[in-house]
Amino acid sequence: MDYLKKLSRFIIPYKKYGILNIICNIFYALFSTLAMVSLMPMINVLFGENEKVYTKPTYEGLKKLKVYAEDSLNYFITSTTDSQGPQQALLYMIILIISLFLLKNIFNYLALYFITFLRNGVLKDLRNEVYHKVLTLPISYYSEKRKGDIIARISGDVNEVKNSLLAVLELIVKEPLTIAFAILAMFSISVKLTIFVFLFIPISGFIISRIGKSLKRKSDRVQKEQGVFLSTLEETLSGLKVIKGFNAEGKFNKKFQESTNKFYNFSNILLNRQNLASPTSEFLGIVSIAALLWYGGSMVLIEKTLSGGAFITYMALAYQILTPAKAISKASYKVKAGNAAADRILEVIETHSPLEDKPNTTTKHDFTNSIKLENVSFKYEDDLVLRNFSINVPKGKTVALVGQSGSGKSTIANLVTRFYDVTEGKITIDGTNIKDITKHSLRSLIGLVTQDSILFNDTVKNNILLGDENATDEQVIEALKIANAWEFVKDLPEGINTNIGDSGNKLSGGQKQRLSIARAVLKNPPIMILDEATSALDTESERLVQVALENMMKNRTSIVIAHRLSTIQNADEIIVIQKGEIVEQGKHQELLDKGAVYSNLIAMQSFQ
Fold first, then answer.
1. Transmembrane stretches, by residue range (predicted)?
2. Are the CB atoms for 438 and 362 separated by under 8 Å?
3. Which domains occur in the chain, in start order?
4. pTM
C-alpha cells in the first residue's frame, strides 16, 4: 500500500469522506456483532435456557459491564415472560434482532455512500493530472512511448486505482473491525473455544498469502498488454487509408489479434488467481467450523460448560468471521492490482520535463528587435542534426531556410518554438535567451503553420478560435478571408459552425491548410514560422495558399522553411543548409548568379 503515500495529495481533498466512511464502518462492524450476539437471548427464550433474574441489577463500573448487560437482559426477559408470557418476550427479542440488522445495513450503505465521493474524486483528479502531464511533457517523450499505452494508463489503470481505494479501506477498517468485534464477543462467550479456533487462523492466512504473492506482477503484465493493443487500434484509425491502400488489413489484423490473445491469456491467469481466493478461504473456514463443531459440541454435550444458545451464537460469530476474511483476501488482491496500476500512472505523473520553466523566467509581451541563433548545435539522439548554426532574423524581415530533406530545416522551427532545447549554443529573442522566457509567453509571440494541417474534430469556428478564444465571429471571418478560406467556408452547410470531421477529413488538403493559416492569422503574432506549409499541396491549392501566406506575412517577422523554392523568391534572405550547416546565404538572384548549391536546387525543381 506504499502507493497510497504517493497518491496522498489526491486523497487529502476528499479526506472527510474517508473519515465518514471509517466512522460508518466502525458502527457497521459493531452492529454486525451485536446482531449475532442478540441471537443468544432469543434462542434461550425459545428453549427456556435463559437465567432467571428477578431483581433489577445495578451498574458497578466498566469491569462488570458484561455481567450488568447480561443480567439486565435476563431481568427484562424474566419480567416480560412473567407478566406477558414467553411469546411476548420472544417478539421483543425478534424486534431487537431486526433493529440491529437494520442499523448494520444502514451504516453499511452510508459507508459505501461516502466512499463513492472519495473514489470518484480521486479518479477525476488523477485523470486530470495525467492529462495535464500529457500536455506539458515534451514532444520527444511521445516519440519513445506508445500512444495507446498512455490511453490505457489514463483509462484502465486509473480505474484500477479507484477500485483499490475501496479495497484498502475494507482491508484496514471495515473487515478487520468486524473480525475484531466478533472475536471479542467470542472471547466473552468462551475463552477456551476461541483459543482453539485461533490455531487454524495462521494456517489459513499462510495459504491465502501464497496464492496472491505474484499478483502485482501478473496485473502489471495485463495492463501493459492492454496498452499494446490500444496502440495498435490508435495507429489503425490514424493510418486507415494506407492500410487499405496497401492491402495490409491482414497484417494489422494479425498484429491486433496476437496482442488480444496475449491479453486473453494474461487476464485468464490473473482472474483465475483472484477467483481462487474466495473458495480457498471459504473451504478453510468450513474446516475451521467443522473442528469447532466437534470441540464445542463436546463442551455442550459432555462437559456441560456451555449452553446450547451460547454455542449456536458462538458458531454464528465464527461463521461471521469467514465473510470479512474472504473480503480481506479479495481486497488484498485488488490492492496489489491497484499498486501495479498506480506505479504506471505515477511513472507518467512523476516524469520530469526538461523543458519546464525555470523559477526565474520572465514573461515577454512583445518583439522589438531580432531573433538570433548563436552557434547552435542539436541532436535528437546520437548524431548532430545542426552544427554551430548561426543566423539573425531582424524584425519585419523574412528569412527562408532551404535545403534537401534531412538537412535540419524543420529542426530550427522546433528549436525556436522550444519544442526541444538546443544541445549547445543559444537562441535569443531581443537579446534574451528563450530558456529565460516562459514557454507560454514565448509561444504567444509565435504563429506556426506546419506541413501537416493539424485540425480537430470540431467546427471551423472552434478550430480557428485556438488562435484567439475571445475573438468574435466577424474576426474569425476576417481571418478566413485573409487566409483565402472564406470562399469555401461560406458555402459549407452551416458556414463557420460546420463540423469538419476527425482531423478535418471532410475538407481537401488545400482547404485544411488554409484553415491552419487562418488560425495563425487570428492569433496575430509578431513572429511567423512556416514549416513547408505548401509542400503537400497541388498546384492550384499551392497558389491559393501562397497568396494567403503572403497576406499573413505582411508586416511580420517570418522564418520560412521551404521545400518548393518558388514560394520564397521574395524573401529578404535565403539560407541554404546542408547536413546541418550553412553553405550559402543571400537573396534569390545573388544565389542564382553564384551557380552553386541553391542554383542546383532550383534546376532540379525545373524553375527558370
1. 20-43, 89-118, 165-187, 193-211, 283-302
2. yes
3. 3-349 (1.20.1560.10), 367-445+573-608 (3.40.50.300)
4. 0.72
